[in-house]
Amino acid sequence: MMKHLFTYLSAIILLSSCSMVKSVLQPKQTAVSQAPASEPMPEVKPENKRAKVGSSSTVNNSTAFQTKEISGYSASLELFSLQQFKYAIRLDVPVEALQNKSLYNLIDEWWGTPYRLGGTTQRGIDCSAFVQTLMFGVFALQLPRTAREQKESTTWIPMSDLREGDLVFFNTRGSVSHVGVYLHNNKFVHASTSGGVMISDLNETYWSRKLIGAGRLAGTVPLP
Hints:
- The protein is of the alpha+beta class.
- The protein contains 8 helices and 8 strands.
- It has 2 domains: 64 residues, no CATH class; 117 residues, endopeptidase domain like (from Nostoc punctiforme) (endopeptidase fold (from Nostoc punctiforme)).
- The protein has a 6-stranded antiparallel β-sheet with strand order 3-8-4-5-6-7.
- Strand 4 and strand 5 form a beta hairpin.
- Helix 1 packs across helix 2 and helix 1 packs antiparallel against helix 4.
- The radius of gyration is 26 Å and the shape is globular.
- GO terms for molecular function: cysteine-type peptidase activity.
- Keywords: Hydrolase, Protease, Signal, Thiol protease.
């Protein structure tokens, strides 16, 4: 997860104020061109002139290249929301993988909502109601109320074929009794009895033992 952290923290700073990047870069360029006139220049021997000129040219070209690269990087990062950066870190994936902004906005809105059996609001919600809310809010798909009914509404798929928006089902207390929505990198979002709305990993011992399988709904594409 740490391999993306530096990139995303830098990106958030750039998104918060792109003008800060310009203000940081510009003074450095000005400082080079406006050296104090009174500062004595070192004597350059004839045999060293070629080396000095070559060194100076290399530094200037490098600075121009880095400035151009930072500017282009900043512009591309502005295409992503802070929620996308936040959840890219949580999922340990490149932010470019999270194209469905409405999905991660909804997850962020419901994050930490406590679990309540039979609940359907942000005062408390159970797993199937959360999946029902997410699938309607993001994909405009109306699902039945229970995890078992939701499983019957899907087309069963192999775990190796999982993609964002698929449903994952678990046997926590007999038959199909828990459901979540798959995201990326073996992670799924769900309303957990222990932590409320959160993201868990399919490879965690508890969930890997309880996993039944996954299903896909037709029309799981982001709304415009």
